[in-house]
Every structure is written in C-alpha cells, then in structure tokens.
Amino acid sequence: MAENKTQPTSMSVDEFLSSVEHSGRRADGLELRRMMQEITGHEGVMWGPTIVGFGSYHYKYESGREGDSAAVGFSPRKTNLALYGLTYGPDADRLLPELGKHKTGAACLYINKLDDVDREILAEMIRTGYQHVMAELHTPSS
C-alpha cells in the first residue's frame, strides 16, 4: 500500500514561516501558529514542505488504507490560507456561517486573511475540530 505523501519532517517551522514572501500571509501564519499551539497544546511540526500541523492521529479506513495526519494545521499559500481539520468538528456547519469570508474544499477551509474572519469563531473551530479528530477519528496505534 502506498505511503502518504505528506509526512512530518524535521524542517523548522520558524524557518518556514519566516520564508513566506507575502508579509501579510507571513504575519497571519505566525498568528495561526500561536492560536493553534495555544488551543491544542502541541508545538507546530512541518508536514511536508508547506503544512504546519498540530497534534497527530492515526487513521484506518474500511478499505484498509491507513496512515498518520496532523490533527489540525495550516499552510500560508500564495493565494490564501489553507486550514486543515477545522471542518470535521460537529459544530462546523453551525460555525461556518458566522466565521466571515471563506471558502471550503473537500477537507480544507480557505481564507484570504485573518482580518476577513471572526477570530473567536475561528478559535472555536480549531478547538472543536481538534477535539473531534482526536476523540472520534483517532485509531490507537498497535
């Protein structure tokens, strides 16, 4: 079975965030790091070359595919901030309309900048997404 492409690395989160070219995106990345670290209690870890993840979980699908993933995380991309794990929580459908300007994808939440969203709602989505992933989706390692 193929291994996940996105794995934790030893790359420095500080170096990655300081290398983000767009100053506003870099500042938002630093703020997201602080928020996610405070909410999850985990230090940020680089998953692949561009995702900062907090906490991790092991998953196993009925198909037999399994792997590890960051519980929540983000990537400061050139066009937007991609946030991972926030739409999994049971309150996501209720909170998304209150969040502010955003888009959603299959498993991602996209925002242009933090000033476009309500930070308290965002913090609640980080909290509930993280708790849901760790409690409901986590498969204990054998």
From TrEMBL:
Descriptive protein name: DUF1801 domain-containing protein
Source lineage: Bacteria, Bacillati, Actinomycetota, Actinomycetes, Micrococcales
Domain of life: Bacteria
YdhG-like domain location: 25-127
Species name: Paenarthrobacter aromaticivorans
Segments of this protein annotated with the region Disordered: 1-20
Positions with biased composition (Polar residues): 1-12
One Pfam assignment: DUF1801
